[in-house]
Specification:
about 300 residues; alpha/beta; TIM Barrel; eight-stranded parallel sheet; two-stranded antiparallel sheet; 10 helices; 12 strands; binds NADP nicotinamide-adenine-dinucleotide phosphate; NADP-dependent oxidoreductase domain-containing protein; NADP_OxRdtase_dom; oxidoreductase; oxidoreductase activity, acting on the CH-OH group of donors, NAD or NADP as acceptor
Length: about 300
């Protein structure tokens, strides 16, 4: 099965379906999963330093026979490496773990920095670091010049942050990776990104393990009508909006199904647009109030650009 590619703002082609790898190494099965995924037609792998499983992915990629230039590998700089002097080393560590010479896409995982010694995704105030986003971004721009990354982008960036950032960028982010599924549709953010040449990748496109998108009556009804799975409906809905999707599965049948798109009519897409619930799987503000500006755009006051 071959997956269509979307042209990023610098001409690099990115497969519109990739494999999510967060939490994908339970019982050590990620190595086999990656190899199986390549056999099934996956060429795009969504990785991150924070997922602590890039070594397994790297070992598997080393064994596949598909040429490197056909693969599309994304990874993400973690919050504790935002200081510009730490950024080149952070990329080198990622490349070493993945056993790669270059990445296709490097993302800033979150729009806030934490201190080097913390790994917490929701750092308390005294573990935050005062690093302006643009300082990290400029260091990432230099990585493109070095040839070690083909494209750079961001993740979990809201419209307000992007609006402040864009006039200062030498390289406009190629991608913004954010949570998108039928219960968190983010129409305004997606429109803003797409109008400004920033491709959108939807993470948790199935709602993850916590948002019951696949149990929704409308999604199930549409799946029945198209003789497909609820997951295929959710993924096809996102793809129809020009959104790249990165579902995670370690199950062979589901890996295969997740590559198979179904054609939803405009009426069916409209039915899905009505089931929005603004329900996120990932939201650090559940744990720490001081990160409220990250997702709650009406209060968006990114303190450090
Ligand atoms: N940038 C960020 O901050 C960020 C945050 C979160 C996630 N991500 C990325 O996005 C990827 C996807 O998000 P996610 O892993 O949280 O959630 P997801 O892909 O929405 O959902 C994964 C869950 O759905 C199940 N599943 C997969 N295919 C299915 C199917 N066809 N039918 C029924 N269930 C199915 C999986 O179980 P099985 O494995 O058993 O199939 C797993 O429990 C992550 O892996 C990661 O790469 C990025």
């Amino acid at each position: 099965m071959s997956v269509q590619r979307i042209k990023l703002n610098n001409g690099v082609l990115m497969p519109e379906i990739g494999l999510g790898t967060w939490n994908a190494n339970k019982e050590g099965i990620l190595f086999e999963t990656v190899k199986k995924a390549v056999d099934l037609g996956y060429r795009h792998f969504d990785c991150a330093k924070f997922y602590a499983n890039q070594v397994e992915i790297g070992k598997a990629l080393k064994e596949v026979t598909v040429p490197r230039k056909e693969l599309f590998i994304t990874s993400k700089i973690w919050n504790n490496r935002h200081r510009p002097e730490l950024v080149p080393g952070a990329l080198d560590e990622i490349l070493e773990e993945l056993q790669l010479e270059y990445l296709d896409l490097l993302l800033m995982h979150w729009p806030f920095a934490s201190r080097l010694e913390t790994n917490s995704p929701e750092p308390p105030l005294d573990e935050m670091d005062n690093v302006p986003i643009m300082d990290t971004w400029k260091a990432m721009e230099a990585l493109v010049d070095s040839g070690k990354v083909r494209a750079i982008g961001v993740s979990n960036f809201n419209k307000d942050i992007l609006q402040k950032m864009l006039p200062q960028c030498r390289i406009v982010p190629a991608v913004n990776q954010v949570e998108i599924h039928p219960y968190n549709q983010s129409f305004e953010l997606v429109r803003f990104c797409q109008e400004n040449g920033i491709a959108v990748t939807g993470y948790c496109p199935l709602g993850g393990e916590m948002v019951p998108v696949l149990e929704d009556d409308i999604i199930k009804q549409l799946a029945k009508m198209h003789s497909c799975t609820p997951a295929q409906v959710a993924l096809s809905w996102a793809l129809s909006r020009g959104i790249i999707v990165i579902p995670k599965s370690t199950n062979e049948l589901r890996l295969k199904q997740n590559l198979e798109k179904v054609a939803l009519t405009s009426d069916e897409l409209a039915m899905i647009s009505k089931i929005e619930k603004h329900k996120r799987k990932v939201d650090p503000v559940r744990y720490v109030k001081h990160l409220e500006w990250v997702f709650h755009e009406d209060k968006a006051k990114c303190p450090l650009i």
